[in-house]
Design goal:
Chain A: InterPro entries: 3-IsopropMal_deHydase_lsu (IPR004430), Acnase/IPM_dHydase_lsu_aba_1/3 (IPR015931), Acoase/IPM_deHydtase_lsu_aba (IPR001030), Aconitase_4Fe-4S_BS (IPR018136), Aconitase_4Fe-4S_dom (IPR036008), IPM_dehydratase_rel_enz (IPR050067), IPMI_cat (IPR033941). The complex is a heterodimer. Chain A is an alpha/beta fold. Chain A contains 16 helices and 19 strands. The chains are: A alpha/beta, B alpha/beta.
């Protein structure tokens, strides 16, 4: 039988409570993740109106943005950070919400913890007051970043008002070259479609490149959907999804798991599914990619030179000139060889165990360049523990990396980890905005964790493929 | 809630593309448990680096209509961004386009974020710079921007427009009305009932 509905529409329809007078849908939310930054004002709104949390068991809290990655002793040295931690502890206690606090081994970056615990499952609607909630779409869920007022709406009613976006299928077929990672795929898509190319759309990532990816790689791709302007991104559930979820703490167990798995697979967009738009890319065209500018779309393949300003459309040239000025880079120069000051492996995009394993392969037996400050920040305490069991911490420390506690760290620098002055940072995170890494004049080059590792070793932007071939030779 | 049918006030020009929410309110100011006091830190790092930043210019200090470029408010979902603009004094935004989370945040806080084509923005930009005291009106009933004798079309998705002009942009009250339907819907979603 023909099935023209895509996954997005199936999941949306299932969760629609009603259509509101404004024309927006009232959407039921299956999982609400909260953290310390965007929730305190929401709980105050509830108190002001004398409201309760409608489904406290469908809300899970952890702490990540503000958490120091060195000295985690309470009270935190930063009094403002301590106030925020105390606030989420009090709010969760008072409203009956489970909190994975810093003394809980399950604590970590909210988008690492959700999947790791099996909280994130296919077919769910998932929201969090954080734009990188799009990460959870890797499981075939509708996962959306929301603002604090909406956090209050979801706490009080387990629903929110939302207009339905269109769905664009983004296909990448073919074989990725050696050393080309999920991060390169997502940076390439954003480069091609632009930072606002996805406005009005949910992205369905399809094609054999995504089919072959692990769940962790899929999370990296979906994580950065927001950087392309998409409201969210997802990948259809398949056997890889089911294998990942089996045995996780919050996954269904026994017969319920089999029933769940059958339902999950039934949600996938069928071969006749309709989309509002389809774009297709060839995997062979993607090389290790590095951003050079101040938006995630301003990137080049590592072997390319930066394009001349005149090659950009006229209405973009002001922004391009500003990017060159801010980054202290020049048109026509190669990005390879560009000296860096800091190397950061971490963030909700690339702090998972597989990221650390791949980076460690590049680092093993080598030394971080003398002039580089390098740090590895695992995405969760469980990732950290696993990495230490595998001896990855030793590889990083021996090479001269700092080995830190779990947290958001230098991705957005709401904690003590910050760039200083106009330092240039090779970063596995997701945003290269002006001032993003904590110094108003700090500069960020986004790249994959293996590319960050290579840059840390050589002290400059490096084509990791050259180092990988040395490893395997 | 207050019905928002039109906003009148002087303008402040910031006709730049891809202004992200980290620039509107840098992350260090998110270390807070209320939104109070965010107004004075709007665009703080940009202002430090640009002595000519419009948010520091005396002629724009009472402005309430912000003029932006393309993809305004991209990046982080932080509601702190529109909250800081509101506390600075902004009541409406005119830009070429918006990032969606930012747009949603603005709407739910009662700030119309309307779109206008580049040509309109450039005319308004010149007008505001040449005549900072000139009042503009963003009229949501006619979807027109008025500036002196001139009138321009603007756009706003119908659901946002109807929420603002009917005073129902804080959706919480509406959402709360559906408690029984919410519970009924939840009972039909397999994972809400643990796949029983």
């Amino acid at each position: 039988m023909s099935n023209t509905k895509n996954l997005f529409d199936k999941v949306w329809d299932l969760h629609t409570v009603k259509t509101l007078d404004s024309g927006q849908d009232q959407l039921l939310i299956g999982l609400h993740l909260i953290h310390e930054v965007t929730s305190p004002q929401a709980f105050e709104m509830l108190r002001d109106r004398d409201l309760k949390v409608m489904f406290p068991e469908r809300t899970m809290a952890t702490v990540d943005h503000i958490v120091p990655t060195q000295n985690q002793a309470r009270p935190f040295e930063d009094n403002l950070a301590e106030q925020m931690m105390s606030a989420i502890e009090k709010n969760c206690r008072e409203f009956g919400i489970t909190l994975l606090d810093v003394d809980d081994v399950r604590q970590g970056i909210v988008h690492v913890v959700g999947p790791e615990q099996g909280l994130t499952q296919p077919g769910m609607t998932i929201v969090c007051g954080d734009s990188h909630t799009s990460t959870h779409g890797a499981f075939g869920s509708i996962a959306l970043g929301i603002g604090t007022s909406q956090v209050a709406h979801v706490l009080a009613t387990q629903t929110m008002a939302l207009g339905r976006p269109n769905v664009r299928q983004v296909k990448v077929n073919g074989e990725l070259g050696p050393g080309v990672t999920a991060k390169d795929v997502t940076l390439y898509i954003i480069r091609k479609l632009g930072v606002q190319g996805g406005v009005g759309y949910a992205y369905e990532y399809a094609g054999d490149v995504f089919d072959r990816m692990s769940m962790e790689e899929r999370m990296t791709v979906c994580n950065m959907s927001i950087e392309g302007g998409a409201r969210c991104g997802y990948i259809n559930p398949d056997q890889t999804t089911i294998d990942y979820l089996e045995g996780r703490p919050f996954s269904p167990k026994g017969a319920a798991f089999d029933k769940a798995a059958e339902w999950w697979l039934s949600l996938a967009s069928g071969p006749d599914a309709q989309f509002d738009d389809v774009v297709e890319f060839d995997a062979a065209d993607i090389e290790p990619t590095v951003t050079w500018g101040i938006t995630p779309a301003q990137s080049v393949g590592v072997s390319e030179n930066l394009a001349p300003i005149s090659s950009y459309p006229e209405d973009e040239q002001t922004l391009i000139k500003e990017a060159f000025r801010y980054m202290e880079l020049e048109e026509n120069q190669p990005i390879k060889g560009q000296k860096i000051d800091v190397a950061f492996i971490g963030s909700c995009t690339n702090s998972r165990i597989s990221d650390l394993r791949e980076a460690a392969k590049v680092v093993e037996g080598r030394q971080v360049s003398d002039h580089v400050k390098a740090l590895v920040v695992p995405g969760s305490q469980l990732v950290r523990k696993q990495a230490m069991e595998e001896g990855l911490d030793k590889i990083f420390i021996d090479a001269g990396f700092e080995w830190r506690e779990a947290g958001c760290s230098m991705c957005l620098a709401m904690n003590p980890d910050k760039l200083v002055g106009n330092e240039l940072c090779a970063s596995s995170s997701n945003r290269n905005f002006k001032g993003r890494q904590g110094s108003p004049t700090g500069r960020t080059l986004l790249m994959s964790p293996t590319m960050v590792a290579a840059a840390a070793i050589n002290g400059c932007v490096t084509d990791v493929r050259e180092m990988l071939s040395a490893v395997t030779a | 809630m207050t019905k928002i049918e039109s906003i009148t006030g002087t303008g402040i020009p910031l006709l730049l593309d891809d202004i992200d929410t980290d620039r509107i309110i840098p992350a260090r100011f998110l270390r807070c448990v209320t939104f109070e006091g965010l107004g004075e830190h709007a665009f703080e790092d940009d202002r430090i680096q640009d002595p000519d930043h419009p948010f520091d210019k005396p002629q724009y200090q009472n402005a309430s209509i912000l003029l932006g470029g393309r993809n305004f408010g991209c990046g982080s979902s932080r509601e702190h961004a529109p909250q800081s603009l509101i506390r600075w004094g902004i009541k409406a935004i005119i830009a070429e386009s918006y990032a969606e989370i930012f747009f949603g945040n603005c709407t739910s806080l009662g700030v119309p974020a309307v779109c206008a084509p580049r040509e309109t923005l450039e005319v308004l930009n010149r007008e505001i710079q040449d005549h900072p005291d000139q009042e503009l009106t963003v009229d949501l009933t006619t979807m027109k921007i008025r500036c002196g004798d001139q009138e321009f079309d603007c756009t706003l998705p119908e659901n946002a427009r109807s929420a603002l002009i009917s005073g129902t942009y804080d959706f919480l009250a509406q959402l709360l009305k559906s408690e029984s339907e919410i519970k009924e819907r939840a009972a039909s979603v397999p994972y809400f009932t643990s796949f029983a």
